[in-house]
């Protein structure tokens, strides 16, 4: 065979071999992934049975061998972490820790960032939720968070933020907890992550801790609605029901509380969750205590202790606390004294920052007041007041002020007593505004009912008077014949008047029907208009996202750095506008956008785009300001230009620094926007009026569009100041008020 035919055949054979090898390699790596998926299934299976963990280990060992043969590094890395997790579940902590150490070293060596983040999360599982252990858990989750952000795993970012929010809540740092949880909600929405019932539940708990039961109930019911919509049947469902029950309990709505606790108890029984069963049962006992069903509460606790002796610290604290309060309410102070000693012992042993201390303090104060040991009470009153202020728990603080008032009154300190009583009234009024609203509604209903009863009585009296009058006329008609004739004529006139009035009423009814039909039509048109406006904002947002994607695609074909920079800047500007239309689409208010939310979202996006999380700190001092689209778009573009310029030019050479953004109202409808940094500032010979910078020109032009003034200067860095008028919003609100 000649060479002219031989060469093409040889080339085709080589290509076939390469394709076959690649296909075989892909099939083998998929086999590794499937083995690890099956192994993880047995690891996560409920019950932690030995045979399930052995199956998980065998499957993972097969995956590790195949990964080593293929030199498949990611498969080896995942298998090593999975093996550590299996041994931890088996209770072989020492071996698990050694495997985890090897895994972390491997991820660091080969720069496997996502696996390194998962390794840090696994490291946190070796600690508890108490004391220094809790600080270690927070430390590892904080190490994992930027790695998940860097790898673009937004769902895992949301989950990590949720866990950090939970840890901070356990720690007692409610403000930081709420910040983490709100940020977790934002990332969940961006990632399309729908399982947010746990986040809602934690936010509700945080607000309950602060004594803001309006917000607590809002987020608690959101958690229930989301979980039931997603048909969540996990243990988490029981925790959600339990927390909503606690909110109703604190609002003194004991029947709804009992209903939710019964639902939570069913979940605990289904999952054989002893700890949850004990906690929920103790809550039900507390509810029975509040409605004075003491015997039922004692019987419930006795049965629970006999079936499941308390093991966790939380339950060992809670059980004597409930027994103590039951016997105190029953005025059986001898039995109460037994549990009082246990409470004092726990109080002395626990640290000052332990979450149980406020509850223990309240019990000690109650006993000392009841036994008239007033002098010993003050140190506990002061301790509880300081703790509740730090935790932001207004409910506990208000009740403590009431106890303080009682102690001062008993001691004859009347001026101090009045001050504490006033503070109690102020705090309790702010907490129980929901109950006040209900009471008002009840009084309103009572008033309307009484008014209707009075109207019925009045009509009855009128009816009787008319009847008596008719009887009198008949008597006169029988006596005087002429009166009969006149009465007949008068009756005829009345009849004619009645017929005329009836025709008028019929005509008015027809007119009213036409008016009602027109109102219904207008309501329908208004609804369609609002839907169309939402759809327009949605379409505009989608179109801007499409353009951003097209620019991103186009940049892949460009080598010119200036062109790439221009495209990236255009993407940032379009995203700034896209955020506005996204918020208007999601909001019930189609006229205005709340700027503090928008600025926070924009800054977060810019930080992620430029990867400046650990180098440049952004400080936001933004008041709640609402603006319409005509004002929000130019203001957003100005912010985009100023922030991107600060990130790119203010801190050369990877310098660290901070950028401060403030938006505040000066007076009337005049507002001021400041963007300042502590960077290198402008060159001494820089003249803003003569620059050919597109960004500077945009900020000048957009400031004029806002009918505002633009000022830029060096002030320990660069400071940009825009003062503008927000009069259009005021005008629209007045028109809205007139329509209402």
Structure, explained:
By secondary structure, the chain is of the alpha+beta class. Among the domains are: 353-366 and 375-428; 432-476; 591-739, Heat Shock Protein 90 (2-Layer Sandwich), CATH 3.30.565. The chain is built from 27 helices and 7 strands. The protein has helices spanning 3-44, 50-70, 73-90, 93-109, 113-124, 131-151, 154-171, 174-191, 197-210, 213-229, 235-250, 254-270, 274-290, 294-307, 313-329, 333-349, 357-370, 374-391, 394-411, 414-431, 433-479, 481-555, 561-586, 595-610, 629-650, 694-705, 727-739, and strands spanning 592-594, 616-622, 626-628, 657-667, 670-677, 709-714, 718-725. Strands 2-4-5-7-6 form a 5-stranded mixed sheet, covered by helices on one side. A two-stranded antiparallel ribbon has the order 1-3. Strand 6 and strand 7 form a beta hairpin. Helix 18 (374-391) runs antiparallel to helix 19. The longest helix has 75 residues, at 481-555.
Salient structural properties:
single chain; 740 residues; alpha+beta; Heat Shock Protein 90; 5-stranded mixed beta sheet; two-stranded antiparallel ribbon; 27 helices; 7 strands; 78% helix; globular; disordered C terminus
């Amino acid at each position: 065979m000649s060479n002219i035919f031989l060469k093409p055949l040889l080339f085709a054979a080589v290509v076939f071999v390469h394709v076959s090898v690649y296909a075989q390699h892909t099939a083998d790596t998929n086999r590794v992934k499937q083995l690890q998926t099956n192994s993880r299934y047995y690891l996560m299976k409920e019950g932690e049975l030995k045979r399930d963990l052995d199956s998980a280990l065998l499957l993972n060992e097969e995956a590790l061998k195949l990964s080593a043969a293929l030199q498949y590094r990611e498969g080896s890395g995942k298998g090593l972490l999975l093996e550590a997790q299996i041994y931890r579940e088996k209770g072989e902590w020492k071996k698990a820790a050694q495997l985890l150490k090897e895994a972390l070293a491997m991820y660091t060596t080969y720069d496997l960032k996502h696996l390194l983040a998962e390794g840090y999360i696994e490291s946190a599982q070796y600690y508890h939720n108490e004391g220094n252990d809790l600080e270690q858990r927070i430390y590892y989750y904080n190490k994992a968070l930027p790695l998940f952000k860097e790898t673009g795993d937004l769902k895992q970012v949301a989950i990590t933020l949720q866990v950090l929010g939970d840890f901070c809540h356990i720690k007692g740092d409610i403000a930081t907890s709420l910040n983490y949880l709100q940020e977790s909600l934002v990332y969940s929405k961006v990632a399309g992550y729908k399982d947010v019932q746990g986040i809602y539940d934690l936010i509700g708990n945080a607000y309950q801790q602060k004594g803001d039961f309006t917000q607590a109930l809002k987020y608690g019911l959101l958690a229930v609605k989301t979980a039931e919509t997603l048909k969540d049947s996990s243990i988490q469902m029981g925790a959600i029901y339990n927390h909503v029950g606690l909110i109703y309990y604190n609002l003194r709505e004991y029947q709804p509380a009992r209903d939710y606790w019964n639902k939570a108890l069913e979940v605990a029984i289904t999952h054989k969750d002893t700890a949850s069963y004990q906690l929920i049962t103790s809550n039900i006992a507390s509810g029975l205590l509040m409605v004075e069903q003491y015997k039922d509460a004692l019987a419930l606790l006795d049965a629970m202790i006999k079936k499941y002796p308390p093991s966790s610290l939380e339950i060992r604290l809670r059980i004597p606390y409930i027994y103590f309060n039951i016997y105190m309410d029953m005025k059986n102070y001898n039995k109460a004294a037994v549990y009082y000693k246990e409470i004092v012992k726990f109080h002395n042993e626990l640290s000052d920052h332990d979450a149980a201390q406020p509850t223990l303090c309240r019990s000690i104060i109650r006993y000392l007041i009841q036994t008239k040991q007033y002098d010993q009470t003050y140190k506990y009153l002061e301790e509880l007041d300081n703790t509740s202020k730090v935790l932001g728990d207004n409910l506990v603080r208000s009740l403590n002020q009431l106890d303080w008032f009682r102690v001062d009154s008993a001691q004859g300190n009347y001026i101090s007593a009045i001050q504490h009583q006033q503070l109690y009234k102020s705090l309790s009024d702010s907490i129980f505004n929901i109950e006040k609203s209900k009471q008002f509604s009840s009084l309103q209903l009572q008033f309307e009912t009484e008014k209707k009863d009075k109207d019925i009585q009045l009509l009855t009296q009128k009816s009787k008077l008319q009847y008596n009058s008719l009887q009198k006329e008949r008597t006169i008609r029988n006596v005087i014949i002429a009166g009969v004739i006149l009465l007949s004529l008068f009756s005829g006139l009345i009849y004619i008047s009645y017929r005329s009035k009836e025709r008028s009423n019929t005509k008015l009814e027809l007119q009213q029907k036409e008016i009602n039909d027109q109102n219904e039509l207008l309501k329908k048109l208004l609804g369609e208009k609002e839907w169309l406006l939402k759809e327009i904002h949605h379409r505009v947002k989608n179109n801007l996202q499409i353009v951003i994607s097209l620019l991103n695609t186009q940049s892949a074909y460009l080598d010119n750095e200036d062109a790439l920079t221009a495209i990236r800047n255009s993407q940032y500007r379009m995203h700034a506008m896209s955020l506005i239309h996204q918020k208007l689409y999601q909001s019930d208010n189609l006229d205005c956008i709340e700027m503090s939310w928008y600025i926070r979202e924009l800054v977060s996006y810019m930080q992620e785009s430029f990867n400046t999380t650990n180098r440049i700190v952004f400080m936001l001092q933004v008041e709640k300001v609402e603006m319409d689209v005509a004002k929000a778009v130019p203001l957003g573009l100005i912010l985009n230009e100023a922030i991107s310029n600060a990130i790119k030019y203010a801190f050369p050479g990877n310098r660290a620094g901070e950028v401060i953004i403030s938006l505040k109202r000066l007076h009337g409808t005049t507002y001021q926007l400041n963007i300042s940094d502590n960077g290198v500032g402008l060159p001494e010979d820089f003249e803003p009026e003569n620059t050919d910078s597109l960004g500077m020109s945009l900020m000048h032009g957009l400031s004029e569009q806002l009918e505002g003034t633009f000022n830029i200067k060096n002030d320990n860095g660069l400071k940009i100041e825009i003062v503008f008028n927000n009069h259009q919003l005021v005008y629209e609100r007045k028109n809205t008020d007139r329509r209402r």
